[in-house]
Amino acid sequence: MGKVGLRSLAVFFAALFVATMWPVYPLVSRVRPFLFGLPFSLVYVLGLSLVAFVALLWYDWQTPNDDAS
Known about the structure:
Number of domains: 1
Strand content: 5-15%
Number of helices: 3
Largest sheet: 2 strands, antiparallel
Helix content: 55-70%
């Protein structure tokens, strides 16, 4: 995957970080509607965490394994 993949992953996580701060988060920081019994703002943050997990999992699968054994 190389440096390009790592750089794009860093940019992706920077975008996720900005999505939890002032310019974006106030657009979704409300209690209603409830989704799965949780406030919308909590579902938004949990969704971002899930997206980050999937991105790291995908990156781990794409990088070559350097095991010598």
